[in-house]
Design a protein that fits this description.
single chain, Aspartate Aminotransferase, domain 2, 7-stranded mixed sheet, Aspartate Aminotransferase, domain 1, alpha/beta, 2 domains, 430 residues, 3-stranded antiparallel sheet, 12 strands, binds pyridoxal-5'-phosphate
């Protein structure tokens, strides 16, 4: 669909709303094939793969398709080992304890559906967890008469201690596993995973960290963290091709976990590789090029700004906070979380309408999670998520979550602030 400013024709009754010119992204957009006509403030959902990494992936694809049999039989294992060496170093774990997988949803499913649950067992989550991953836990638990218990973590939130308190208060003698986001999806909060892991595991509760957003955003030391399981996406903030993620399993837990797809590894006579490696490294014919191209992301993200990855992290954190402040000022909201809990993303609760109007607005037909997002995308050309979150206090309301990547500019957040104010005013007439 063409969403360039020239092709965009606002609905006649709303023409006066578009009083600001749509801002362009910053100069570093040259590295990405992103549509310059879209104000793209959602790197967080599906990442964005730069030209350099797509080229690296293309090379692997060409190699594979030139002679597919030789590729799989002779080359694949060595290429995968090389990519794993590089990425294990990047996330901070021994390569033998890490497997490439396609995405975090797959990784969470892999763990919760591998473990043997007994009736009465509990899996602990909190209400900022990603819906698909909670579903995976519910699915695995319900098949065995086990239960998923949800710790209530407020938003707005005063600090990481609240997460610790609420999580530990929800632990019972039956809690076997806690699934905890390193960085939460709806609220963009970095959770105190080091303290949570230590406290939970000292109470006999294994921790599965959902690190979907963490690689590149947060400095990782996965093995040192000590969690039984860690899953992370390379295809979000590290900018890998879609379908590149990793699963770390602590050596003492590797015997409990098998991939969702069991292939030749199960009865392989090989003794030169662990069972974990034989099971996970071949799960049938897939496109392995996202994994093989992922090491090319490390020099890419490190080369974006002088000062390397630490400079990119500082830049994106500062930009997300500036963006949040611009938006908060425009809609009269208080920042709902301390700055230190927000790397690269920031969510703001939107002012609530009357319950009747909220119900009417929630019932509007929508392609995105909320019709407000449809309006921001299709009328204003801004890509930014809006969703309803039951955990919000004092009552469920909508959140908007901005992302900050090096190609974003302050003008883009000002434009969103303008668009959002106009749309909230428009909603008050509906
Ligand atoms: C916290 C969290 N977990 C899991 C996921 C799922 O990631 P994927 O779609 O790559 O499986 C997301 C995606 O946004 C997420 O934010």
């Amino acid at each position: 669909m063409d969403r360039s400013p020239a092709a965009h024709t606002p609905a006649p009754e709303l023409a006066t709303h578009t009083t600001l010119p749509r801002p362009s992204p910053g100069p570093l957009i040259e590295h990405w094939p992103l549509d310059r006509g879209v104000v793209f403030l959602n790197h967080g959902s599906f990442g964005g793969t730069p030209h350099a990494v797509l080229r690296a992936q293309d090379e692997f694809r060409r190699l594979m398709e030139r002679e597919p049999v030789a590729f799989w039989v002779e080359s694949f294992e060595g290429l995968l080992d090389t990519a794993r060496q590089a990425m294990a170093r990047f996330v901070g774990c021994p390569p033998d304890d890490m497997a490439f997988i396609h995405n975090t949803t797959e990784g969470v499913n892999t763990v919760v559906r591998s473990l043997a649950w007994a009736p009465g067992d509990e899996i602990l989550v909190n209400d900022h967890e990603y819906n698909a991953c909670v579903n995976a836990a519910v699915h695995a638990a319900s098949a065995a008469g086990a239960a998923v218990v949800t710790a209530k973590v407020p938003f707005p939130i005063s600090g990481p201690e609240v997460v610790l308190e609420r999580t530990l208060a929800a632990v019972t003698a039956r809690t076997r596993l806690a699934v905890i986001s390193h960085v939460t999806s709806p609220t963009g909060l970095v959770l105190p995973v080091e303290r949570l892991t230590r406290e939970l595991q000292s109470r006999g509760v294994d921790v599965l960290v959902d690190g979907a957003h963490a690689p590149a955003m947060v400095e990782l030391g996965v093995a040192q963290l000590g969690a039984a399981y860690y899953v992370g996406n390379f295809h979000k903030w590290l900018c890998a091709p879609k379908g590149s993620a990793f699963l770390y399993v602590r050596p003492d837990r590797q015997g409990r976990v098998a991939p969702l797809t069991v292939s030749h590894g199960l009865n392989s006579p090989r003794t030169d590789r662990s069972r974990f490696r034989l099971l996970f490294d071949y799960v049938g014919t897939v496109d392995p090029t996202p994994w093989l191209a992922t090491p090319a992301c490390v020099p890419f993200v490190s080369g974006l700004l002088p000062g390397g990855l630490p400079a990119m992290r500082d830049h994106n954190c500062a930009l997300a906070l500036r963006g949040r402040d611009i938006l908060a000022a425009a809609i009269g909201a208080e920042p709902p979380a301390p700055d230190a809990m927000l790397p690269f993303m920031a969510s703001l609760p939107l002012p609530a309408h009357s319950p009747d109007r909220e119900a009417r607005l929630a019932a509007r037909p929508t392609r995105y999670a909320d019709a407000l997002q449809d309006r921001l995308v299709h009328h204003w050309g801004v890509q930014v998520p809006v969703w309803r979150m039951p955990a919000l206090t004092p009552r469920p309301a909508r959140l908007i979550r901005i992302s900050a990547q090096v190609y974003n500019t302050l003008d883009q957040y000002h434009y969103l602030a303008h668009a959002l104010s106009r749309e909230l005013a428009r909603e008050r007439t509906l």
